[in-house]
Amino acid sequence: MGLESKIILISGPTASGKSSFAIKFAKKINGEIINADSMQVYKELKVLSARPSPKNYQKIRHHLYGFHSVKKNFSTGDWLKLAVKKIKEVRNRKKIPIFVGGTGLYFKALTDGLVNIPNIPIQPRNKIRILHKTLGQKKFYKKLLQIDPESKHKINSTDAQRSVRAYEVKLFTKKSLHQWFKNTKSYFQEDDFYKIYIDYPREDLIKQIELRVEQMFKNGAVSEVKRFIKLKVRKDNSVNKAIGVHEIKQQLQDHNELSDVKDKISIKTRQYAKRQTTWARGNMSNWFKLPPQDLSKFLKKIK
């Protein structure tokens, strides 16, 4: 298959079995695994982020897992710098770097480069967020298309986060977000990568998500959130968006039934998986799609 000189990328929706597949793959090709999940970088979110535990490493070296404090922000740019450094380290050991995770922006930064957009001050950003809240996503999206028509073919009409980002970039820099992307270059060439996307059928994935949520609670999700609350993390820190943090906080305050909390987390995780799938459709069309039933067959073909 000629993978010796490649950088392997493995993505897929949450709960699709990426981590266990990556370990089996790494054993076959003499690889080391590098994290490409934005929540698995945090030390204090082992359970909620479903971070692989050291006993699951099975003698395969893992990098960029559980090393960063939730008290400090961690950007895609921060991750990219470390990822590039890790590729060099892994290759120096004559091993193959294998990136695994579900954060689409991390993979995009690695394959396409990171956009060097000027920092936008907090005041105009907050004004735009208030405008979005006032108008609602549907009307806001129409307003975005008036100032940035290119977004029509690049941003899903229901994607609030990217709509707000595109709006603030165009307003502040007078240049479309998509123009910024066009002028961006990667550290690597396209054929440096071998890209695999685990294409999980939705109905099967829903079952996997429910099993994962149950397992999280057995593994101590509630205790983890209690410890997280004590850390008094700033509200504007993106780690607060980790699925389960808000829902378990609410449960601890309101003493709701645990089954209700599990249902809420399952629903939110399914919504997240849907967003990941939508992202993949738009940004990973040239990746090799591998259904879960073919994973073993794929591994057997590798000599």
What Rg do the Cα atoms give?
20 Å
Give the helix level as a range of percent.
40-55%
Distance between the termini: 8 Å
Give me the side-by-side strand order of the main sheet: 3-2-4-1-5-6
Shape annotation: globular
Give the topology string: H per helix, E per strand. EHEEHEHHHHHEHHHHEH
**pLDDT averaged residue by residue:** 93
Write the CATH fold name of the largest domain: Rossmann fold
Tally of individual domains: 3
Largest sheet: 6 strands, parallel
Q: What is the fourth-level CATH superfamily of the largest domain?
A: P-loop containing nucleotide triphosphate hydrolases
CATH class of the largest domain: Alpha Beta
Structure notes:
With 303 residues, the chain is an alpha/beta fold. The chain has three domains: 7-115 and 185-200 and 276-301, P-loop containing nucleotide triphosphate hydrolases (Rossmann fold), CATH 3.40.50; 122-182, Histone, subunit A (Orthogonal Bundle); 203-275, Crystal structure of tRNA isopentenylpyrophosphate transferase (bh2366) domain (Helix Hairpins). Helices cover 50% and strands 9% of the residues. The chain contains twelve helices and six strands. The chain has helices at 18-29, 76-92, 104-112, 122-135, 137-147, 160-173, 177-182, 202-218, 221-230, 245-254, 258-283, 295-301, and strands at 7-11, 31-35, 62-63, 96-100, 193-198, 288-290. Strands 3-2-4-1-5-6 form a six-stranded parallel β-sheet, with helices on both faces. The longest helix is centred in the last third of the chain and has 26 residues, at 258-283. It is globular. The chain starts with 6 loop residues before the first strand and ends with a helix.
